[in-house]
Protein: Streptomycin 6-kinase
Organism: Actinokineospora iranica
Amino acid sequence: MTIVPPTFGQHFTEEGELRWLAGLPGLADRLLDRWDLTRDGGPWHGFVALVLPVRRADGTPAVLKLGWPHPEAEHEALALSLWDGQGAVRLFEHDPGDWAMLLERLHGDHSLLDEPIDTALDVIGGLIRRLDRPAPPRVVTLRDVAARMVHELPEDNEEEDFPVPPDLVEQAVAYCAELGPTAASRLVNQDLHYENVLRGEREPWLVIDPKPIAGDPEWGLIALLWNRWTDAVTDRLDHLVDLTGADPDRARRWTFVRAVENWLGAEEDEDNPIDPAAARAAAIAKALA
């Protein structure tokens, strides 16, 4: 049975990436043996992780997730262990050295992307409230991120020949300087969007693939704006504020900062002169400026 489908890892070109990709079959075999697992279907994958459906020794369905080592995923298992299956996928086993996790199996073909937008927002609003708790010490902090952005945003904008209007960058820098030092230390999933909430068995909907940061909950709202796009940016943000109990001012300003950051970080070239991600980030920033 195939371990690595040909569609996975096509964007990997560096020597280390290719070496990791080539080592996946051996890594999977070792973990299947160590955790007493049996393959139970063909592989799935996202952009940087391979997922193998398996069954545990007692017959419990699960998935073996093998992720490319990168900073955003470093504390994924830590967040899942703290949530302990309450509103999020349950973590059974974790090997930090191999960036591998054994997780409960959810319905990978049914996410909140398949639900009406009002239903999806209601579900996510409830999950954000349930998953809110103090962040553990090891997680990167929004205070540190904001302090770096004060310097990096204008420098990066200048290096890239000013793709973002300088006045908007200055506004984002001012917000970072003002809000960063007083940012909270809550466990925030900064990549919570509709495809990362799947149908479950023991609960109707469960969060997967968290990217944790210690900060203000308002920092994590923007992914719900640029996914399932609407031009009514402020209306949806206001609705999310109502659903989650977020602070309206911090929600607006942190969302603006993240929009500027992503507008600046979007990739545009001759083959892709108008990056849709950049266009959406720009629209959000302009709507909230």
Q: What stands out?
A: Residues 15-34 form the longest helix (20 residues).
